[in-house]
Amino acid sequence: MPNTAVENDNTISIHPKKMIEIIDVCKSFDERQILKNINLTVYDKENLVVLGRSGTGKSVLIKCMVGLLTPDSGSIKILDYNLTAINKEELNELRLQVGFSFQGSALYDSMSVKENLEFPLKRNLAIYERQKLHELVIAALQDVGLEHTLNLYPAELSGGMKKRIGIARTLILNPKIMLYDEPTSGLDPITSGEINELILKVREKYNTTSVIITHDISCAREVSDKVVALVNGESTLQGTFDELKKSENSELKQFFNY
Amino acid sequence: MAKIGTVKEILITTAEVYDFCKEFFVKAFTPPFEAKEIIKQCFSIGNKSFLLISFTSLLAGVVFTKQSQPSLSSFGAESWLPSLVSQAVVRSLGPLITGLICAGKFGSNMGAELGSMRVTEQIDAMEVSGTRPFSYLVVSRVIASTFMLPILVIYSDAVALFGSFIMVNSFNDTGLLLFLNEVSVSITYLDIGSSLIKSALFGLSIGLIGCFAGYHSEKGTTGVGKAANTAVVVSMFSIFIIDIIILQFLNLVR
Fold first, then answer.
1. What is the number of domains present in chain A?
2. What are the tens digits of pLDDT across the range B39-76?
3. Which of B23, B120, B129 should one mutate to test binding to chain A, selecting the residue with the greatest count of A CBs within 10 A?
4. Among A171, A211, A243, B195, which residue is least crowded by beta carbons within 10 Å?
5. pLDDT by residue (tens digit) across B70-100?
6. Residue A249 lies in a domain
């Protein structure tokens, strides 16, 4: 994992840079507490997998990381921004540096693939020159291996293709952090494997730090540097995939052995 | 407990409506403006409702004239037919018919379109990529409907009067020029002005209600249906309320 060197008098200490720091985050909906004092840290160019059963608050956690939901208490620091004390302009600045790949891909279905990818370029970077737009769109599509889908509409794409296009649409803005919400859900094992490879390839090429929300054990094994298991809304179980696999926690054991 | 829950929901919705309208008025007058999207929406609104408004207005003109003719002719006032019809069409029928058709046609469309975008997380995707979905989706649609309604009302009035002319001509061979002369004498600038202002307010309310219903749609497919339904019902209701308020105001002015 690449590190940041910090010079201090005669000694050189190596500190990995913290990209995401979540401290004591709680979130409830009505009477139901979903997240209970979540604590986690993600370092530069690290792939962190948040693993857990359906309904344990994984998607709630990742939505809190981009300001789609507001935590009831605790703090979320992403890059140099404190998400719990941030104004709208700063939030927009932060969002330009964070890519979010949705569980259902969330492609704009009234637009073609080309228009989907051009949309953030036009609206965020004010790029309107046709040649430039075309080059950037083709480059992003080549990264996900789908340049032939340029003029297709989302309804004409398979589930795996939609996921890849969704990732390409976020990559086109060169984010520093990628958040993946269930990247392999609803896909066959072969396509899931391809998506896992793509997640690793994205880190190599774009130097991104990633948070991957999943309940897919093979996805967690293949892409993770570190795993956080959410059990009953708590994040007490953290470590590498192999460390967690040896955990004595009954729910986690059941999860790994299923 | 149920009553407390209902009161709480009403208060929350009121606050959401207030925030939504405030955000619309702030963003409508703050650059960057969504000129391209507004033009696209204007075309879509005109294109979607053009045929329906044509047929409905023509029939309204024909039927209203046909219904009024026996009453007027019974006391020898058939020559007042163009005057009566034109005042009714310009002051009330034209804006009301156009408003109701537009509420059903593109009010529901806005509710369903934005609702399904909300349900499939497309609006969330725009938000997290910092692409200002409110300006792109809401402001452009509301401005387009506010701008297009008066244009459609002018067209609707013209078609309804043409329908009326066909009937008047069939009763007593009145020529087009004479008919138009009768119409122009009986309609005042206040009638035209109030009709256009009223229709712009209809457009504003249809746009705001349709977009609010869709933008705040609940998750799931039932949420989309509910959003479309709410958009139509509430905007139709608001059209009648606006009509009554403007009518009362005009009665004071006249």
1. 1
2. 999 999 998 889 999 999 999 999 999 999 888 888 88
3. B129
4. A243
5. 888 888 888 888 899 999 999 999 999 999 9
6. yes
Split at pLDDT 50, 70, 90, the class of A247 is confident
Task: Say whether B131 and A109 touch across the interface (CB within 8 A).
Answer: no
Q: What is the DSSP letter of B173?
A: -
pLDDT of residue A15: 64
Query: Would you say residue A119 lies in a domain?
Result: no
pLDDT band at A182 (very low <50, low <70, confident <90, very high): very high
Residue ranges of E strands in chain A: 4-8, 11-15, 18-29, 32-43, 47-52, 73-78, 81-82, 98-101, 177-181, 209-214, 226-231, 234-239
Determine the structural domain holding residue A231 and report its residue range.
4-108+178-257
Residues 101-160 of chain A whose Cβ lies under 8 A from any Cβ of chain B: 102-104, 106-109, 119-120, 123-124
d(CA B228, CA A12): 63
Nearest by CB to A106, from B125, B132, B136: name it: B125
Query: B133 preceded by cis ω (within 30°)?
Result: no
pLDDT grade for A2, boundaries at 50, 70 and 90: very low
Residue labelled with tokens 């693939």: A113
First to last CA, chain A: 31
To the nearest whole angstrom, how far is the Cα of A222 from the nearest Cα of chain B?
Answer: 26
Q: Using pLDDT thresholds of 50, 70 and 90, give the confidence band for residue A5.
A: very low
> Using CB atoms, which residue from A67, A103, A173 is nearest to B129?
A173
Asked, for residue A128, whether it belongs to a domain, the answer is no
Q: B-chain residues within 8 Å CB-CB of A30?
A: none
- Distance separating alpha carbons of residues A163 and A169, to the nearest angstrom: 10
Number of helices and strands in chain B (H, E)? 11, 0
Domain boundaries, chain B: 31-253
Can you give the CATH number for the domain in which A22 is found?
Answer: 3.40.50.300
Tokens 């990559």 identify what position?
A: A171
Which tens digits make up the pLDDT trace of A100-113?
999 988 999 999 99
- A52 has which bridge partners? A230
CB B160 within 8 A of CB B93: yes
Give all strands of the β-sheet with A234-239 in edge-to-edge order. A98-101, A177-181, A209-214, A47-52, A226-231, A234-239
Rounded to the nearest 10 degrees, the angle between the axes of helix B81-88 and helix B35-74 is 150
